Protein 1
Amino acid sequence: MAQIPILYNDAYDINVPIGHRFNGTKFSKLANQLQKSDFHQRLDFHQSSPVRYQDVLRTHAVDYVQRVVDRTLSREEVRQINLPINTQLIKRSFLALNGTYTTALKALDEGVACHAAGGTHHAHYSNGLGFCVFNDLAFTALNLIEHGSAKKVLILDLDVHQGDGTIDICHDKNGIYTCSLHCEQNFPFQKRQGTRDVSLDSHLEDTAYLNKLHITLKEISKEFMPDIVLYDAGVDVFFGDQLGNLDLTLEGIFKRDCNVLEHFKNRKVPVATVIGGGYSPCDSDIAKRHLSIFRAATDVF
Ligand SMILES: [Zn+2]
């Protein structure tokens, strides 16, 4: 059986103030759980490397990137990002961009690859938002196209929150199709218009959610045949999530992830996955939820 490429970096964790909603240690906890999992022999770990600065400027305004690097963002800009802007966060923000990009390149070679981070979909062209400094999904799509690795990229965003930043950056770009399934009554409250947006009612449960997903995947197939899918497998759709508003079970999330991977595997479209959102004060609980997409990858491929 084939090995599944996994991108990770020891520098992904960040320190956040006690009681902060963002769990800064979930990344190392996830890597740890992956290495101890019953499918660890199928996983091929790679360290993500720093990004090329000029590639970031294809995704974000130069003055914004420079103000992040110089740590001269305004108090309001920092408030919008809602994380302490320090050298640790800046370093991991650049690393995670290349982590998702490298995951996509590996997926093109192997059929599937998974990033043990990524999904910072609220970062806009010239500002960060909601725990997101730079947008790894938009960055990856734009650079895959720019460097000739793909002509058509589908960004399938199943995090419970709409990827407004991804839509902001990609909406006028040729070859990029954005699809978001998200809870209507949730952040960001001002939704953007992507290529396909599916608003879900609060407290939707497994069966209804999976039906919506099934219909959506069929509709996308009629409109767009991608060279690669960037799949944001956010687990904040879980009923116990602190910032979600849907009622999926862990079993439902696993079915969702398997359904997405099977759908594209059957069409011979490579899939690169990112973990997206997931919120709990307990890093072990949240890491356990994020295991779903990795287990699904080893099951389906
Ligand atoms: Zn989210």
Protein 2
Amino acid sequence: MVGMRLDADITIIGLGPAGLQAAIHAARKKVKVVAVGKSENSALMRAEVENYLGLESISGKEIIRVGREQAKRFGAELLDEDVIKLTKEGDVFVTITDSDREIRSKAVILAMGISRAKLNIPGEKELLGKGVSYCASCDAGFFKGRPVAVIGEESEAAESAILLSEIASQVYWVYRELKASQHMLDKVRRTKVEMIQGRPVRIIGDPTVSGLELEGGRTLEVNGVFIALGAKGSIELALDLGIMPDPSGMIAVDADCRTEMEMVYACGDVTGNPWQLARAVGQGSVAGENAAKAVLQGK
Ligand SMILES: Cc1cc2nc3c(=O)[nH]c(=O)nc-3n(C[C@H](O)[C@H](O)[C@H](O)COP(=O)(O)OP(=O)(O)OC[C@H]3O[C@@H](n4cnc5c(N)ncnc54)[C@H](O)[C@@H]3O)c2cc1C
């Protein structure tokens, strides 16, 4: 039994920066845009951003707050609800939310972000933002001249270690089994990064990180712990539609942010690396613009 029904030209799923930018660009083309999601769950809500063009330092919360107002001012309708089901009936996309609302639209933009793979060890959650980070390219600057550890096995961890080696006083790369490419490993070996095979069991610190304990009792004295274990796209809704993930588990798009299914677009972290604000808003604008054009051509 479905509750309230809404008709739209475009449904946007996700109210982080990618979804909001898509909403702004689509709504400005005077198509009816309904954007669904909980902005408080956006990755950006936990960010202090220093690497976005034209802004020296700004909180992610502020970007989201203003972005939501902009999207509404241009005519997009924002719903603070989660989508639980997405299907296609003929040419119509049917989106069902957790408030039992049904939205029927001609096009869909997927902007659901990612969830970072977790270590699940004590201290990880408690010290997030206090020395624990999942993004070296976002947070490396905060660790200038200080010792850090990178945890991970694949090329993302290698890249993080290399980047940090130019900024931090000491970089330990802790891995269990190396899976990074030989090319990346050769690059790491030309830096000052110290590679340690081991298993992290606890992140120590109060109120900020002061150490990383490894199995066997060794503790690395570090102020930063970068967890680079990859990410998982929130792609269940795409799978419901029949869109298959790419080999890295993300939603593949072309340069116009089109997915493999007609009238379905995707943008932001859910389409892959680098998981960065600038890329999310860039793709959001492309997806919003192209989805609106496609809807207008079909009218
Ligand atoms: C701690 C931290 C620091 C960061 N620092 C920086 C930085 O300094 N610079 C930088 O460029 N980037 C930084 N980032 C990365 C940046 O925040 C992301 O790249 C950006 O937020 C991605 O935007 P997005 O819209 O694709 O995804 P998100 O911002 O994650 O938004 C996804 C949205 O989709 C919604 N959603 C998910 N599933 C559903 C569903 N089923 N139904 C409805 N809605 C759904 C979520 O609730 C959320 O609203 C940081 C990230 C973190 C976690």
Protein 3
Amino acid sequence: MNVVSLMAHQDDEMRCLGTMLKCRARGDQLHFVCLTDGSAGVLGAEAPTPADAARIRAAEMKALARAAGATYRCLNAPDEFMADTPELRMALVEALRATGAELVFTHYHDDYNLDHSLTHALAKHACMLACLPLLPTASPPLREHPAVYCVEPHGPVPFPASAFVDITAFESAKAELVTKHESQERSMRAALGTGMAELCRVPDAYWGQKAGCSYAEPFLPMAARGAIKTRPVLP
Ligand SMILES: [Zn+2]
């Protein structure tokens, strides 16, 4: 199965990374797609310009993808100023087709960040468009609408999770992978006093306690036509 993390920013995959590693263990191919270029996402002197920030974020995401045995594609929308355009919709359709998307993880509709909320809406639309033969892209249309699951939002937003994946065996690998985002590790420690691994471990333990295991990731199936499958897709 082709499993795709479809997120606004480099590091947003942290909400589904443990599940993706579990997917890889069952033989799935992993793909990371980021809609924005990350050009607003580095704090401090290491990125004097937005172009420097985008270069740093790209290098970090590529390192993570390489370590996870995954592909990585960035659609280069402007970070924090993402807009719904025909070009971005078609780039997203091509990304879904090129990856052969069968299982997609993306943002929940409510979130502190508008890039995240807009990614949710674009993902919902593009997963449907990716099946339409009259929209030409380099890759052929998907034969079937992928299964889509929303990840836990960032910030104090109620999240009605209804599916849980036990990632206990993958939590340490996940923690190691997220620290590939070295600039984010430094930014988070400066802003919040805690690193990327801890930002994963605390919510994963919270949801694990609810799900009856040590660490879990929570999901909500996307309420969209074709996005919910009657066969099991989560690992
Ligand atoms: Zn983000």
Protein 4
Amino acid sequence: MAAATASPTTLQVDVAIFGGGIAGLWLLGRLRQAGYRAILLESNGLGGVQTLASQGIIHGGTKYALTGKLTGSSQAIKAMPGIWRDCLAGHGEIDLRHVRALSDHQFLWSTAKLVSRMAGFFAGKVMESRVREVKGTDRPEAFQNPAFRGAVYRLDEPVLDVASLVGELSRQFGDAAYAVTWPDGLQFEHARLIRILGDDGVWRTLETRQTVFAAGAGNEPLLQRLGREGPAMQKRPLHMVMLKGALPPLYAHCLGASANPRLTVTSYPLGDGEILWYLGGDVAEQGVGRSRDEQVTAAKHELGRLLPWVDLNSVDWGTLEVDRAEPRQPDGRRPDCSFMEDSDGLAVVWPTKLAFAPRLAGEIMTLLSGRGVQPASEHSPLSLGLAPAQLAQPPWEKEQLWI
Ligand SMILES: Cc1cc2nc3c(=O)[nH]c(=O)nc-3n(C[C@H](O)[C@H](O)[C@H](O)COP(=O)(O)OP(=O)(O)OC[C@H]3O[C@@H](n4cnc5c(N)ncnc54)[C@H](O)[C@@H]3O)c2cc1C
């Protein structure tokens, strides 16, 4: 009798996904809908690290064309807003009708100094279909102050409430998402034979036809555990800033002199009627290495220069240090596209952008059918007897140290 309980439970699946950020969750959804036996293993909480820390912008590449020409990034990402919009409308590859879009558009604004350069650029052929100038009351409240001397452009790319996105994906597909303990609760015989320790102290065995590492920054240690040297990863750190109070909602990039926005502001309505501003762009890139207080001071100065009429006297401030995890680039810069590399039944993926998750899932589906891994015809239960993976929290809910 003792032997029966001590012997590990074994489960055979088509695909095991490590990591429940957007890459893993989207892929799980696509696979389950196609009839594959797929499970997801998550060591922290669904939505995990970068996904819930992201600004939720479904880019179509305009942000990357700010120097005046379309870069590799902007070409590859062009199709993404359309794919997401179809999903949000309920006729795409995943039904996202219950996901909250915070805004269906964003704004780009230029300071007075850059107005003429930007006007010429946006009038150009490449951009004219994507961006149009807005004036007067069509501008967001933050740019209706008479002291504002710049120009404002509207860009029809949505901004999503990422917590609601993760919540919805988890609601639809989370029954196949389990908690694992890293590093002690996971062992690999090889990439497709995996042992997992349950919280009851019993090891389970998982046999897969395809394993996918979609664990963000966790891909590197997973690869090391397997004894694999690549693909190599890079991390690009950010020091994001959060402020909450009586702020106007704003979804906007401030155009600077480089291809990167000087400041990107997204907003999140908090339950108590307050609005949270989440600040990225150069402010977050250049804030790496600053203390929390220094970073808040730098952000105050930047907002004071760019939006001096916005009253910041009674807002609370917080910051978040977080790494973007990506395939290593020769120059350490931002990769142009999502990444997938498969070797011996192990695919390693980094979406590099939330927006690219559908593209990545599509690549894995193609890989599976290319390898002859077809959806199973019979559907025995997927239960491994492991604890279900829980949802992680967005950074502003985790923040304890509001200044
Ligand atoms: C501050 C910030 C803002 C961003 N803003 C945008 C934006 O506006 N628009 C956009 O398109 N992109 C944006 N991005 C990029 C985007 O967020 C990421 O490319 C994307 O979320 C990465 O998703 P992921 O699933 O690969 O990784 P993650 O979201 O990091 O998820 C990885 C998951 O794997 C889990 N994990 C780790 N190790 C293990 C293990 N051993 N076993 C099991 N699970 C494990 C983690 O707990 C985590 O849940 C932003 C990124 C950052 C950091």
